[in-house]
Amino acid sequence: MDQDRRKIIIKEIEHWQRSKLLPDQYCDFLLNLYLESGEEREPANLSGKAVKAIKLATWKHWLLTFGIFSLICFVILYFSAFHPVLQIAVSLSGVLLLLLFGQRYRAKSESAGLALIGSGMLLMLGAGLYMLQLHELERWGWKAGLLAVCALFWVIFGIAARIPILHLCGWIASFLVYAWLLSNNTQSPEWYEVQLYWLPASFVFGWCSWFFHRWSRPISAVLFVAGALIWFMPELYAKLFVEDWLWLQLQLIVKIMAGGAILFSLRKKWIAWVA
Fold first, then answer.
1. Model confidence over 201-211: pLDDT tens digits?
2. Is 36 helix (H, G, I), strand (E, B) or coil?
3. What are phi and psi of 133, to 5 degrees?
């Protein structure tokens, strides 16, 4: 049998075994038929691949691994003693490495790549909050500024790397920053003022969704979902930040009915934007 064809069949059988499409004993039997004498089977799970990598590792690999692990432990233990500039540089280096490896691993495994990218984004936010606390920058403006920077980066990176969920998380974080700014700069707003703070942005996002759909459907879909979220932000904002909110349940029911009517009447248009 042709070697390339045999490798394709072996990979397909391994896929059946990983996906539980066939019992393990059937897959093992089929693999034994197609494996040549003396040929070792590639491990299908992560633990098997790790064991094989450990067996094949040389002393240089072990030395490099322990060196990197020791460096990470050193940075974690003495991070608070570093100069602020060095702290920022170390944090950004960690974020960039996670994003770089995440993008590289996405070609092999989408879930592993996204996990690394998500870890990098959380490291950016977590390290920033830790440094603010470490240097006693506890005012809300510093935290809001950090979250705004993270939101902007998530939006840009989510669009560039084609990760819609990260793009959407960036917009949600920006909504939190806006709500934070409103809560610290307004005093007991009326219910209609709260609606005016948010509803125009919902229509702006809807228009942007229509505008961008001709170039990118994923971006258009994210903007459409963000606009739908803003539609209900006045009620959430009133629940969290307004002490004397009035008829909140009635407002929410009216908003749901009005939003449903708008979506139904314009369904042929907005479905074309996001589908």
1. 999 998 888 88
2. coil
3. -70, -40
